[in-house]
Amino acid sequence: MYRETQIIESAKTTSPNGGPDAVDDGALVINVGPQHPATHGVLHLVITLQGETIQKIEPHLGYIHRSIEKMCESLSYRQFIYVTSRMDYLSAHINNHGCALCVEKGLQLEVPPRAQVIRVLMDELTRIASHELWWGAMAMDLGAFTPFFYAFRERETINDIMEETCGARLTMNYMVPGGVMYDIHPNFQKRVKDFIQLFTNKIDEYDDLVTGNIIFQNRTQGVGVLTAADAISYGCTGPVARGSGVACDIRKLYPYEVYNKVAFDEIIETAGDSYARYLVRIKELKQSVRIVEQLIDNIPEGDFQAKTKAVLKLPKGEFYSRVETARGEFGVYIVSEGGTTPYRIKFRSPGFSNLSALDHISRGCKIGDLMAIMGTLDLVIPDIDR
Amino acid sequence: MFSLEHITDFIQQWLYATFNPTMALILECVIVMLLVIGLFAVLGLVLVLMERKVAARMQIRLGPNRVGPKGMLQTAADTLKLMMKEGLTPDGADKFLFNLAPFIVMIAAMLIMAPIAFAKGFQIWDINIGVLYVSAVSSVSVIGILMAGWASNNKYSLLGAMRSGAQIVSYELSAGLSIISIVVLSGSLQVSDIIASQQTGWWLFRGHIPAIIAFVIFIIAVTAETNRAPFDLAEAESELTAGFHTEYSGMKFALFFLAEYINIFIVCAIGATLFLGGWMPLHIGHWEGFNQIMDYIPSSLWFLGKTFFLIFLIMWFRWTFPRLRVDQLLSLEWKYLLPISMFNLLLITLIAIMGWHF
User: Fold this and answer.
1) ipTM
2) Member of which family (chain A) (predicted)?
3) List of chain B residues whose C-beta atoms are within 8 Å of the C-beta of residue A209
4) Which CATH class is domain A68-385?
5) Is the pLDDT reported for residue A2 higher than 50?
6) Is B323 an interface residue toward A (CB < 8 Å)?
7) What is the structure's pLDDT at B2?
8) In this model, does residue B6 exceed pLDDT 80?
């Protein structure tokens, strides 16, 4: 356990040769979080400031640790998927998807084509919803309130669609080993098409309101530059790494379900600053729309779930699966001893690696820049802490 | 025609006829004080409600709509709540300065009210250096903000206060130069003279493009001076939680809150007075019929209309733009606005000397 005094003392230690860790005596140490409007959750950052300039950031985690990985060890292969909705709650579908994929890999289960398409549709709708929330929250961090409401206006529509088919709006628990839990609602296709029609125009509206704004561009361009080498060494994935020019889209590199059959582009920006990360996500919205447009009229007939035994048992061995969530690569690693519950489970969450780059890219920035950087890292704290 | 001027004149004459001069003056002061306090209360309620309604409209929401008809009494209810809340003083705070700060901010806001002409002949104090007085007194509020930030014993508050100090001191220059350009055009520092000089047309239209530039710079500078978004760095809630008033609660917070809105009203009133002719109706050249119709609208309505238009503009900024960073804020002032307004002042002086304005 860290105590406040220890944190302050640890921040004041000066490295002997005055390297980047050197902190002047006039430094001001402030605690941002665990309750702070900009951390969007219980993230605690201990920031050493020289005036307004950031010298050092120490993230302190653990405020929302629920030991999900340990809990999963006592839950059956059907049950543990539901817990993962509570990790990255904005990508709940995609988390469930990753876990279902891993169990299917162990069982060597073939998922019916209809279920595959429904899963991808849900994943992409989730990605749109997640990026919507990120866009609103990012603009709010930079002091513009109104985009938040505009983003929520569209996000609500997706939530309504999800509610109709999955019965829940946030933690859907729709993906199960072998397919999806229920068939899609009869209204699903029509409502998704309506949404896509409405949403395509809205993306341009977002560009008008935020992307083209000169203040916004000044706030984000050249801020928090993450080089490609750093992105790889910190293990950054998703839009954060793609903003630095690293091609890491799991949907392209290790295609799962029907991703190799749909046409979409992997968005890569090379600048590596906050603005590049912002552009990646905004352009990904359009790509997600493209995928949904291609699939929504081509949902094949057939079963929505493969026939499985009531109690699933994975053979002895180790299984790994990865999916691309809205934040990056989400990996599920299961060690099975052959029983009905996993022997050990490890999740590789994208947020944790992305957060680890925060200290490196925000040194020398102003406090105001920190909000621009954290906004584009798109941190979801329960995903980091698990 | 009925005018507020008649009422004020009548009251003054009656007071001086009934009492001896000293007594009459004291009574006048008491009446003015009550009026100003009443105006403050009403303005606070109206502006807060207006801000919430404007924000709601822009954010596709309804805004307050439960308390009273169409939510009109929401701010009154909020004020009641704030009055009943405990005014906490944090441990380690400088108690005297901590409690003094909101009053200084409030009193500074009250004092600026003096030379503003609300309608024809309806002015508290027509001092001959009116505009200078306004720019001088409006800088006092920064002392209150610095005091609040320092006395709170909170790092966020301190950072917010330091930002606010740098910001207000910088942007006062541009605001001052814009004000001076109108002083140069009208040839007087007295508010009533400046308004009278706009009888044939508002300075915004008469002073060619330099006057428009001065107006734009004035609006930017006063937005920054009143700590409003996109220049609300002093209370940037996503960075510094609430900046200099993080530790304030209850009525002490309400005073800061009220002072912010009063300051907006005052700077917009000054902008309306200097650039948009104060209570002067809109006259267009030789359109006699049009001009006469405009004259029938009471002067107080003209003044309030122009002021509230500018207030709406400033609220519109707040709900549209992201916030600037602190170094960008200062470089905007020192690298762009200040040189432009200096050059602009030269142009305006040239226009005034050569008599090129309309």
Assistant:
1) 0.79
2) Belongs to the complex I 49 kDa subunit family.
3) 320
4) mainly alpha
5) no
6) yes
7) 60
8) no
